[in-house]
Amino acid sequence: MLKEVIRREKDALEELLNVADSYESIVECLNACKGRIVFMGVGKSGHIGEKLAATFASLGVPSFFVHSTEAMHGDLGMIQPQDIAVLISNSGRTQEVVQNITPLKNNGVTTVAFTSVADSELAQRCDYKIIYPHLKEADDLNLAPTVSSTLTLTLGDAIACELSKRRNFTRADFYKYHPNGALGQMLSKE
User: Fold this and answer.
1) Which has the closest alpha carbon to 156: 40, 68, 73?
2) Listing from the earlier edge strand, what are the strands of the sheet with 37-41?
3) For residue 85, what is the enclosing H or E element?
């Protein structure tokens, strides 16, 4: 079973490679952001959003995570009009995520749907879309967020690295944000 799950996720990444060229406009949009890129989600999508926010920030792209439910209870105040909110939901129907679109737009925030369903409410109502292939999950029940979370994480990481490259982010810049740990120790010697 272990090898089969790994194979299913590898195959999904191969499919993502086939559509990778279609993300240029979203990369340009995010690169033009004058504020911060704010990731939002719940459940496994929320966990992926937290990781992506940390990766973007460590690569010189100002970013943070806001839990979609907490946003509706005051945390929307953390998000400013110059920011871009990336709302993550595999189905594009997660109510805790979708409910944020109207108040974000009312506050002048640009919204980006990050989903596998192009005709979902999330994708239709957001200003921009990051659509990844809608594929079967890797577990035998086709329920656990496995393939979908892998695609979201991989695509998000790829976008973060591309933005970092376009902004001429250097190893010295990385050290400014990561002075501790093995990486910080290695970079301090440079």
Assistant:
1) 40
2) 63-67, 37-41, 84-88, 110-115, 128-131
3) strand 84-88
Distance, first Cα to last Cα, the chain: 44
Domains of the chain: 2-188 (3.40.50.10490)
Euclidean distance between CA atoms 168 and 166, whole angstroms: 5
Q: In this structure, which amino acid lies at residue 22?
A: S
Query: Model confidence over 127-164: pLDDT tens digits?
Result: 999 999 999 999 999 999 999 999 999 999 999 999 99
How far out from the chain centre does Cα 17 lie?
Answer: 17
* Distance, CA of 77 to CA of 98 (rounded, Å): 17
Closest CA to 9 of 157, 148, 159: 148
CA dihedral 173, 179, 181, 187 (to 10 degrees): 50
Q: Report the half-sphere exposure of 161 (CA within 13 A, side-chain side).
A: 6
Structural tokens at position 124: 């239709």
Structure tokens at 156: 């998000």
Question: Could you give the C-alpha distances from 171 to 31, 51, 123, 164, 188, in angstroms and in order?
Answer: 20, 20, 36, 11, 10
Are the C-beta atoms of 183 and 59 separated by less than 8 Å?
no
DSSP 77: G
Is this structure's pTM higher than 0.85?
A: yes
pLDDT in tens, 72-95: 999 999 999 999 999 999 999 999
